[in-house]
């Protein structure tokens, strides 16, 4: 698709379908890190067809990415979409809570720019801190409940998949492999949107694209466990900022990648530390009368 090219050689063995088809990606304009994932998944699709799985079962169980600890048997690759009214309500709730927390934090540290004095009284700041603790406590309960529901959903999906026993007869693997390589890989990826920002994950041209050449580029494509893609910077922002648990807009599954811990408490502590540094820098900026000379980096506060 576009300027992206993939060349594949497929060989049908004499004992087909008892023997799976063989294939080789002879050339491609996709980066090797992307090719390895899809090559491994394609080989697994063939292997499972030979083992008696239907094409749909083979695709759903062929994810090469290491699964999250709470969903070791979670199926992937399903086309089922679960964007519900509850999902939209959760998003709106998160936005309201983050705005409320921001207001309460500001009430505790806000200063008059003219004289540097705190705007709110001691009693008002104390009440703001108390309310903030209550909001944080309630949000932790909400996040734990959301995580429990997601784990239950993953468990039901896993049990449903295990109940679909494969056939004792090898299933044809040529068409499933061809459809996966063409529809699920070569034609899909150049148009794949980032699930956070909605922009294409892959640049229009692979030639000299820094997003594909630089392994540390912030907008490099990253595939998450549900098989959809995000820019690295978008994924990092989603998984390290409230509410820390995100559902994929395309399929409704929890967004997970092994490079980010699924333990939200780790992200909560890091977020709280970052916000504390930000408030300190804002206080110094207000004290010096500087509106935009201070920034926050990952390492700490910088001027």
Number of strands: 6
Task: Sum up the overall morphology in one term.
Answer: elongated
Taking all Cα atoms into account, the compactness measure Rg is 24 Å
Strand content: 5-15%
Spatial order of the strands in the main sheet?
1-2
Q: Secondary-structure element order, as H and E?
A: EEHHHHHHEEHHEE
Residue share in helices? 40-55%
* Multimeric status of the protein: single chain
- Terminal residue distance: 46 Å
Give the low-pLDDT segments: 71-84, 296-303
The average pLDDT score comes to 81
User: Strand pairing plus helix content: what structural class?
Assistant: mainly alpha
* Count of alpha and pi helical runs: 8
What this model shows, in words?
The chain has 303 residues and is mostly helical. The chain has eight helices and six strands. The protein has helices at residues 32-50, 55-60, 85-109, 122-163, 174-186, 210-213, 232-239, 264-288, and strands at 6-11, 22-28, 221-223, 229-231, 295-297, 300-302. The strands form three sheets. The protein has a two-stranded antiparallel sheet with strand order 1-2. Strands 3-4 form a two-stranded antiparallel ribbon. The longest helix has 42 residues, at 122-163. The radius of gyration is 24 Å and the shape is elongated. The chain starts with 5 loop residues before the first strand and ends with a strand.
């Amino acid at each position: 698709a576009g300027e992206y090219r993939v060349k594949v050689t497929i060989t049908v063995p004499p004992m087909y379908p008892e023997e799976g088809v063989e294939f080789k990606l002879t050339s491609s304009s996709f980066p090797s890190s992307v090719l390895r994932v899809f090559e491994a998944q394609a080989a697994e699709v063939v292997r499972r067809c030979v083992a008696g799985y239907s094409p749909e079962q083979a695709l759903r169980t062929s994810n090469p990415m290491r699964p999250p600890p709470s969903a070791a048997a979670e199926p992937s690759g399903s086309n089922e979409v679960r964007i519900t009214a509850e999902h939209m309500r959760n998003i709106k709730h998160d936005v309201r809570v983050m705005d409320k927390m921001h207001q309460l934090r500001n009430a505790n540290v806000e200063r008059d720019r003219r004289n540097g004095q705190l705007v709110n009284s001691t009693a008002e700041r104390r009440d703001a801190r108390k309310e903030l603790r209550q909001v944080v406590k309630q949000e932790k309960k909400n996040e734990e409940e959301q995580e429990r529901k997601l784990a239950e959903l993953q468990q039901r999906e896993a049990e449903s998949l295990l109940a679909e026993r494969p056939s004792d007869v090898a299933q044809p693997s040529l068409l499933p492999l061809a459809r996966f390589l063409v529809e699920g890989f070569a034609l899909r990826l150049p148009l794949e949107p980032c699930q956070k920002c909605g922009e294409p994950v892959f640049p229009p041209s692979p030639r000299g694209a820094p997003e594909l050449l630089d392994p540390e580029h912030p907008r490099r494509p990253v595939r998450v466990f549900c098989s959809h893609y995000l820019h690295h910077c978008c994924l990092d922002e989603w998984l390290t900022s409230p509410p820390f648990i995100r559902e994929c807009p395309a399929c409704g599954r929890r967004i997970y990648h092994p490079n980010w811990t699924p333990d939200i408490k780790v992200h909560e502590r890091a977020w709280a530390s970052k916000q504390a540094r930000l408030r300190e820098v804002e206080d110094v900026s207000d004290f010096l009368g500087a509106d935009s000379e201070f920034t926050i980096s990952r390492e700490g506060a910088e001027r």
